[in-house]
Automatic annotation (TrEMBL):
Keywords annotated in UniProt: Membrane, Transmembrane, Transmembrane helix
Transmembrane spans: 33-59, 85-103, 124-143, 149-166, 196-214
Protein name as it appears in the record: Uncharacterized protein
Organism ancestry: Bacteria, Pseudomonadati, Bacteroidota, Chitinophagia, Chitinophagales
Organism (species): Nemorincola caseinilytica
Length: 219
């Protein structure tokens, strides 16, 4: 029995199909960033929902024309509250990014990989340009008092960034990007409900995506 098991194990090692699978796995790990954790998506989505809840509470204050019309206020309050929303957005982004880095670093350590490698650099480059362009668009919308288009713009450009970066990490992230683009385009037709779409795209979808990723790759 022992000799038979040893023979079967050796045959498995010599199987060219299995050898090719192992080579492909090694190449994928070197060409793609596979340390993204499902908990990163869950964390980012949860932080986004907290930020959206805070923004919603601010929008209940007098001076705003419509609940959910992010960064769109009457003249006497616009300058005062615009900075509040900008700092809230920055704080939400920093806290979410910090959690993403923590969970990604933890998974990379568990897999015996480095978080900063050629694949991660390429992925970050693909993320940077669409997000940078979207940031410029958002700033100009705020500058000209058209803040109701900020949430849709964030969703569209962020979704494009995910689609672009999908070639350097799990392909599943592209589906999240496609959904964010679709939600952002839809939100353009409902300028008074930007915060709702923002919460769905950055909050609920990220939590769902994180849960799926955790089930497929982390569990």
């Amino acid at each position: 029995m022992y000799l038979k098991a040893l023979f079967m194990q050796q045959a498995h090692k010599d199987d060219p199909v299995e050898t090719l699978k192992e080579i492909r796995t090694i190449m994928d790990r070197s060409a793609k960033f596979v340390s993204l954790s499902g908990w990163s998506g869950i964390w980012a989505g949860s932080v986004a929902l907290v930020g959206a809840t805070i923004a919603y509470s601010w929008l209940q204050q007098p001076g705003y024309k419509d609940i959910g019309s992010t960064l769109y206020a009457s003249t006497e309050h616009f300058d005062k509250y615009t900075s509040h929303f900008i700092w809230l957005g920055i704080a939400t982004f920093v806290v979410a990014l910090g959690g993403v880095f923590f969970f990604t670093q933890r998974k990379a350590s568990r897999m015996g990989q480095k978080i900063w490698n050629n694949a991660s650099r390429l992925m970050m480059a693909q993320l940077f340009y669409p997000i940078f362009a979207g940031s410029v668009f958002c700033f100009m919308f705020i500058y000209y008092g058209c803040g109701m288009f900020v949430a849709p713009t964030c969703l569209v450009f962020y979704g494009l960034a995910l689609i672009s970066a999908g070639r350097h990490t799990y392909s599943d992230i592209r589906y999240l990007g496609m959904l964010d683009v679709a939600i952002g385009c839809t939100a353009m037709f409902f300028p008074g409900s930007g915060l709702i779409f923002w919460g769905i795209g950055f909050g609920l979808l990220h939590i769902l995506y994180g849960a799926v990723m955790w089930s497929k790759y982390d569990k």
